[in-house]
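Write out the 3D structure for:
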Amino acid sequence: MRRVCQGLIVVLVSGFALLGCAERHVRTNFASEMPASLPLRGFRDTPLLEARIDGVGPVTVVLDTGSSACVVSPELAEQLPGRTRPTRRMVINAEGQRLEAMGEIPIRRLELGVAVFEEVDAIVADLASLKRAYGEPIAAIVGYPLFRDLPLTIDFAARQVSIESARGGQRVRVVDSQLPIVAAEVEGHAVEVLIDSGSSSGWAVPIEKIAFEPGSRASKAVLMLGGSSAVEDGRLDGKARIGVMEFDRPVIESTRGLARVGVRGLEGLRVTFDQVNGAVWLERVRELPVQMPRGIGAEFRATGSTWELWSVEPGLPAHQVGLRDGERVLSIDGLRIGQMGTSALHQRMEQAARLRLEVLRPGGVETVWVPIVSLER
């Protein structure tokens, strides 16, 4: 069985576009020699960077190549010297739903380590759903146009973000000036997809003509800006392609919005966004591991006194025994939160044959035994 959601905590679709909201007055002050690493706060579902915004910080921001603008939370906007102005602009999330922005605010100086951006226009919007996903407040989202003068490289294999030119790989032409949208093919069907670092999904495309592997298709809920949405996903019974680069049997998620490839679909790749030349470079840099990791086909996220299940992948043991995204787990092998940390849980899955979960359900606490299997990345 193939595993493609390594390290996910929650299926979070945070990529979005802003109507009429290109970065209009960005000046870049980059005095460092390339390559230059940007300060990571973490690399979970998406790259989380450490930033200072008009002297406030350090704060955590999401690096989202699927956003055509920068966005700040209302809490951060209150701390900034700029004045929030009314706006009629609308936020469009990944499922095509329109959300009203709270306003817009000028940022004089946005610092991402050695990369400094001046005179940035930002949208003010509620980012509370991101706190639930990452377990910490998210102050802002930095979007794709911010890096229009700099080559942004995200190494999804090494979990690093840098300002550097492509080292190799395949050059793919970008077909949109506001977002990194490229031509692709899914099981012979032509489609334009957004390369979206702000989405933890794999491939998200309209699925009307998609053939799934038998038994892999299922419904689930995903989190995104503005709430949650019901989608279907499963494993493609075939291949997807971007240029000549092939993706064998990727997980496909339905979408009513713009087709995209998120972090799960970009594992093992180094991607360079070269806006100056209107291109994206894709390079596969990670080979299959000699020893495959073990797991149940789902991720655990600590939330208060329980764990929350996310990224339950069709066809793997957690899904097969009836577990679903969002369910809460009271204990794992008799141990509650606080008695077993993340590293101990991973070690247990490497050594044991199954996990005993106490799952909180409407009728009470239910015991669920889940086999642990080797997971091909």
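The longest strand covers residues 103-112.
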